[in-house]
Amino acid sequence: MILSCALAACSGDARPVCGPGPFPAGDGDGHAAPLGAAPGEARAGRVRAEDLPSVASGLATWKAGDFVLANARVALVIEDVGDSDLYDPWGGRPVGLARVAGGKLIEPNNFGEVFFLLGRSTVVTDSVSVIADGSDGGTAIIRARGKLHPLPFFESILGSVYRDGYQDVDAAIDYELAPDAEHVDVRYRFAAPRDRQVASVLHALMYTKRTPVFQPGKGFDEDLQQAPYVALVDDGATSWAYLAGDGPLGSSIAVSGFVGTFSDGFTMPACAAGDRLHAQIVIGGPGLDGVVAAVARTRGEPQREVTGVVTRSGVAAAGVRVHALDSGGGYLTRATSDANGRYALHVPAAASVELTAFRRGDAIATSPAVGATPLALPAAGAIHVIATEAGGRVPVRVQILPAAGQVIPQVPAGFGEAAYADGRLHVAYAVTGDVTLTTPPGTWEVVVSRGYEYELVRQTVAVAAGATVVVGAQMVRSVATPGIQCGDFHIHTWRSNDSGDQALTKVAQAVADGVELPVRSDHEWVASFAPEIAELGVDAFAAGIGSIELTSFEVWGHMGVFPLTPDPTAVNAGAPKWQVFPTADRPEVQMATLSPPSVFDTVRARREAPLVIINHPRGGANYFDYVGFDPATGLASQTAAWDTRFTLVEVFNDSGWQQNRGRNVADWLGLLRAGRKVFAVGSSDSHGITTSPVGYPRTCITLGTDDPRQVTPDLVRDQLAAGHATVSGGIYVAATLGATVPGDTTTGAGSPLAVDVTVQAATWIDVTSIEVIVDGQTVDTIPVMPGDADPDNPVVRWHKPITVQPQATGGFVVIAAYGTRPLEPVHPGRVPFGVTEPIFVAP
User: pLDDT tens-digit profile of 372-412?
Assistant: First the structure.
């Protein structure tokens, strides 16, 4: 590089100015066969479509034409220059990795995202090129170069902490792979026109719910302070580790699928090109043990192999996790037994090791590791559930709970095993209506359910070792909702940074719990559940419609946008933009956050004519707080940010009527009093199935059909926009004023009117009260007594007229019902309720 400096700049002037110029670019294509490296070689070049294996999750963002560094053992794919998916928008970053065998990428990692940050800044990439293609037998190098700039994603989070002013600094990120190495060096190069002090280096990883975080000694734990490295574990494929170039990881932060650590800063001297090793990416696998072993080899730490066979009742046991701890209880590694029960672990050569074998539903086996160590699981039994309705199998939720003092076998959280939900040994979503679950001998309660419209099947069984107990569950639909289908418009999967749930699992839970319209709403990525519905073969029970949660993070909140059609050719599958920022071809653009009305108007102009749902409007940096909305006046203090056209608010976000009465419900009623025709949505905002189940609550829409195959996105959109719906958290409330249904308008304001009210709930669901709201005020709370139920149909808890009198100038009526006893045993901790949309009454 040539440094061209003004004389004052090189003679100690307080404000030196020099023009170092950009780091040189290399070849635009590199090696013609980058995956053909033999032992003793490394190569760099562009990857072809046929070289990119499918990733089981379907979440890969790599594309043909990206660059790949590869030797005979490992490969790292680097995105080409241009607009990028996910949260770093500038290209030139890793988008996938895998091991290499026979010149092919194998078992690719379920890769998320990694950020290379100086303070809060990274490279606005203007080119990606090959500096060394490896044809000389040496290290292969790919370079992403450009100017430094604050990363938009972090601006609102770190902008007040790190006041980076590095936009005049030329920089490059070099990815370097040596022949036969199992790691890639990530090297930062920089050339500053004046001294620049980098306050701190930030090592940051995203989507850690997708590939859980491991650190040596502590196991699966996201508090990374002083950890020698962090590994992202893909049990079924290649895993990888991140080693900071400046030693052990510093103070750490972990939130919502993001982990980061801060280390000491450094000085970029004026008028000189410098470089520093930012990180090493170690590629190993499969699973945790593969990457732990690769890190040890990279660091020159001696290891020994521990092997053995896992059995149960003398038969090889596959799919059993074997965990290894040292004599001080420090977590070392884990592996999974293969089809023949075999396992192999790599541990420090001198370590004294204790092994624990664990598989959900089995009892635990432990043993010191001495040579080839057999592990024998105690004998177990099984429970086989078959669920039917009208002679055919139907999707159900199956839960196995301990009874009569039964104990569930458990291991420490650091082992990284899935947590037991609410004291259940198993919670299974049997979409075929048929499931067999391994169970320790003893007494267990079996609960079979199919959502809020069905009665429960509960049975206590005694399970003997080696025996299978069959439970036949005849499902009875007791709540009648003809022509109505229920949707959950806020469901996250591991496409979202803060969810670890597979999309298939989310769909299975939805259909097992009777949700016909599960709407995928991942952060900043347009998608639907249609592929998963097809794969599971449940199109008779559910329809998939595209959506997104438009996520301005700590700026002005989160919005549901529905319906949307995914565009695989667009950045983030066509996600609406809420920010502008510099790009390589437009470096002069200033980073800015757009106003909510301008974003909403752009969204509404899309060809799908989508609706905007104000998601969780209160709580921190969410929309109603951001604009200063006052329910007493129906107005916002930040008028420029207040949108006057939205018609849907997520009043119930994994929450019920009573707990929201003084908050979101008050906001909704305030909007209605102010003359806005705004309708309530109830959704789960499910990020983790074990903590927030899909379908509590749900929005039940009048669609004129019970068949999800007859539903279209436009039909759902239009009926939802018209308010032809109710919200159900287990209770179903119907109300009419004559022939007028919720969402519509009738006349007669100022006169007494009779609202015909029907409240339904399955017999296992509690209903205690009806609340009558007229013009935003509660005018009556009516206790629901056992004697109010229809003697011929006990699920009809109330069916009577209720007299109301809206104000003479015009008003509205809302009817709610609720209970006090939680929705045990299906959705523990959730309290039942149901509420209508408003019926409007004109003079």
Answer: 999 999 999 999 999 999 999 999 999 999 998 899 999 99
Residues 6 or more apart whose Cβ sits within 8 Å of residue 631: 666, 667, 669, 670, 671
Structure tokens at 504: 């298939």
Beta 811-818 vs 839-842: how paired, if at all?
antiparallel
User: Which secondary structure element, helix H or strand E, spans residue 157, and what is its range?
Assistant: helix 155-158
**For residue 587, cis peptide bond before it (omega within 30 degrees of 0):** no
Sheet holding 365-368, edge to edge: 331-336, 321-326, 353-358, 365-368
Please state, in angstroms and rounded to a whole number, the distance separating the CA atoms of residues 771 and 752.
Answer: 17
The number of residues in the chain equals: 843
Instruction: Assign domain 381-474 to its CATH architecture.
Output: Sandwich (2.60)
Instruction: Give me the architecture of the 482-728 domain, per CATH.
Output: Alpha-Beta Barrel (3.20)
Q: What is the pLDDT of residues 222-280, one digit of tens each?
A: 999 999 999 999 998 999 999 999 999 999 888 889 999 999 999 999 988 999 999 99
CATH 2.60.40.10 fits 306-377, yes or no: yes
Coil/strand/helix, residue 659: helix
Q: Give the predicted TM-score (pTM) of the model.
A: 0.95
User: 116: which 2 tokens?
Assistant: 């290379």
Contact, 522 vs 497, CB < 8 A? no
Tell me if 423 sits within 8 A of 400, measured CB to CB.
no
347: Cβ contacts below 8 Å, ≥ 6 apart: 303, 304, 306, 324, 326, 332, 333, 353, 369
Summarize pLDDT for 630-687 with one digit per residue, the tens: 999 999 999 999 999 999 999 999 999 999 999 999 999 999 999 999 999 999 999 9
| Measured CA distances, 210 to 96, 219, 549 (Å) | 14, 16, 18
Same fold, 306-377 and 482-728: no
Residue 553: predicted pLDDT:
75
Q: What kind of fold does domain 729-843 have according to CATH?
A: Immunoglobulin-like (2.60.40)
User: HSE of 369 in the Cβ direction (CA atoms, 13 Å)?
Assistant: 29
Q: Which residue has the tokens 């119907």?
A: 734
Token pair, residue 625, equals: 């707080």
Q: Which two tokens stand for residue 301?
A: 């730490």
CA distance 558 to 621: 9
Question: Collapsing DSSP states into helix, strand and coil, what is residue 734?
Answer: strand
**Which two tokens mark 62?**
């790599």
Please report, for residues 162, 431, 477, the alpha-carbon distance to residue 396 in angstroms, rounded to integers and kept in the order given. 51, 6, 12
Largest CA distance in the chain: 98
| Cβ atoms within 10 Å, residue 437 | 23
Domain boundaries, given as residue ranges, for the chain: 19-297, 306-377, 381-474, 482-728, 729-843
Yes or no: say if 584 and 125 are a contact pair by the CB < 8 Å rule: yes
